[in-house]
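Dear Dr. L.,

I hope this message finds you well. Following up on our conversation about the binding site, I have prepared a predicted three-dimensional model of the protein together with flavin-adenine dinucleotide. For your records, I am including the exact sequence and ligand specification that went into the calculation, followed by the structure tokens. Please feel free to forward this to your student if that is useful.
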Amino acid sequence: MLDSQFDIAIVGAGMAGLSCAQSLQQAGYKVVVIDKSRGLGGRMATRRLQRTHADHGVCYLKPKSPQFQELLNQLVDRKVIRVWTDTIHKLDEQGKVQSPQRQAPCYAATNGITAIAKFLSIGLTLRLNHRVERIEARDGWQLHCEAGEVISANAIVIAIPAPQAAIVCESIDQDFVEQLKAIEYSPCISAIAVYPIERQAEVEKLGWKAIICPSDPDLGWIGIDSTKQLNPVQPAIVIQSNAHFATQYLDDPDLQQVGERLLHRAAELTEQWFTSAEVLQVQRWRYAFPTNPISDKYLAANTVHPLVCTGDWCGGNRVESAFQAGLEAAKYLNQRLSEREARCKHRILPDQFWVQI
Ligand SMILES: Cc1cc2nc3c(=O)[nH]c(=O)nc-3n(C[C@H](O)[C@H](O)[C@H](O)COP(=O)(O)OP(=O)(O)OC[C@H]3O[C@@H](n4cnc5c(N)ncnc54)[C@H](O)[C@@H]3O)c2cc1C
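The resulting structure of the complex is given below.
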């Protein structure tokens, strides 16, 4: 039978939840990570299609802090990621693709960005396919999952987008829930297009790997995603809408047609052959980027048993902010739990974030 009693339950297996879980588990806590999806990574998402794959959420990582750079170095050493490019092209206001100066290295995973989440999950106890619907304070916490399963823990970390956290935390005091509800997100629609193998030669002639489109009315990003792979055999491109387009079409019943619009716009701006995709899949992200993140790295509830909410919306809107928020939430929780357990033992979080293999 599966264990259902833990020191700490972490809801959300994205970057924030996994970094928090690793840190707390290495300090000796009995941790479980619960996620509603079948796979790990949250918005660090990869889809496998025919003989290729594509990242339809996070495109690449560009570290700003030494701490995040250290994590990326570790991932490079383990051959999970590598430098993908140092040049992201830009679409100018006249619709022309401009080649910028060389920029800082952008990292990507050769097997898809979810490989990072798989790496971060090493050694953790996971409950996937478990949507946490509500939590209840009863002799610690009880987490009620969609399928009826109940998981018990002394403390909870909720590492999911704030509006989703507000639903899970409904039974907590209203001030806390209102703070969560105040965080807003912009949506995004991603189209993933896969082409016949014969097109691979044309990809190699392109002269760019990705284009940001800051002033286009519809698009935000065009990336030749298969160029992240070591030996790509079949081209895959990912086109992301901007927030304005996504807001307009997020609930459109014909998502496929929405994806085709994105594809046609990308073809108009770059290569006409982009319209001849063999497969086109579309993903909508209701909570893509927090638009008004809080400056703190977590939001702690004023409850007897510790409860903390965190995620990219605490301090930023990128994977790096999710990573830092997860680690800071772990520190806070360790301190709270250590105070309660003072007479038993004091646990020490690792100084440096390191996944033990
Ligand atoms: C299209 C797109 C492109 C992006 N590009 C980049 C980029 O290039 N670089 C970059 O740094 N960032 C990028 N971002 C932002 C980045 O994805 C996020 O900042 C980061 O991944 C957030 O991590 P997180 O752990 O906070 O949340 P998430 O990754 O959203 O993880 C939350 C997890 O919680 C789970 N969950 C939610 N509710 C429940 C529940 N009730 N019960 C159980 N589980 C639940 C979800 O399934 C998910 O796995 C992009 C985002 C999008 C959508």
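In brief: Residues 319-340 form the longest helix (22 residues).

With kind regards,
A. P.
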